[in-house]
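Lab notes, practical 5.
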Amino acid sequence: MDMTIEHILGSFRHIAVVGLSSKPERPSYSVAGYMMRKGYSIYPVNPGVREVFGLPSHPSLSSMPPEISDRIEIVTIFRTPVEVPAIVDEAIARGAKVVWMQPGAAHEAAASKAREAGLAVIEDLCIAVEHQRHFG
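Output from the prediction step:
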């Protein structure tokens, strides 16, 4: 798995963060902020937030205009497991390369569906922690 994570984080630069909060105390906010500081493009996805980090937030992956959604390579999920299958379906439909289920967001059936559709799947690992581990 380490080679897969290193390849993912070394190759893909556009991340949709599903469940990105505008509250600095939330893990999604600090993780997305870290990834931005490391040079990744972040695309907030949260129906309850208008913008995060000065970036417009989209209600869902499927509501993004094609000029944005076509860039998405990694979909990082900060939602409860019950919400994950619908997000994975949207990630597949939008042509994402990777579904990254943050700790607490794992859903085995959705992960299997993503793998069957050809997406790489990372479960129960924090994208920022893995970036630090692999790239310092």
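Observations recorded by the TA: Residues 2-135 form a domain with the Rossmann fold fold (CATH 3.40.50.720). The mean pLDDT is 95.
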